[in-house]
Write a structure and sequence with these properties.
Layout lengths: L1 H12 L2 H18 L14 H12 L15 H15 L9 H9 L1 H4 L8 H13 L9
Length: 142
Amino acid sequence: RDRMEAFRYATLLMPQANRDMLNVLMRFLSWVATFSRVDEQSGSKMDTYNLATVITPNILYADVKEPTRSDRDDTFSFEACSVIQQLMDADEVLWMVPDAVIVFLRDNSSEFVEGTSELNTKELLRRCDKLTSGKPIADAEP
């Protein structure tokens, strides 16, 4: 449950286009997984675990300049597959703005919302930080 909340907040930090693409991709892969083992005679073996194993190296990987050492374990790969599988298994709540964020924005709307239509994520986070620290936004340094 805590991990899914962390995923929800992490997806909020993604650029909108990336978040939308991840949402569509995870929903599509989840739909594909519904055809695994339809019955004894038909279906595929591509459940969410197998789909995550196949797709993860292509969408979630480490940018490593050095070749991997032979004595290094595959913990990262296992954890990455686990993340992708959980995203595929997640329900629609994952892609909704958390209630705490909505309440925060509602309570601070007059200070926060002014001129936010063209702000990037970094600037929005800076404004949130200034609101939670108690400093007026106008007094905050860029």
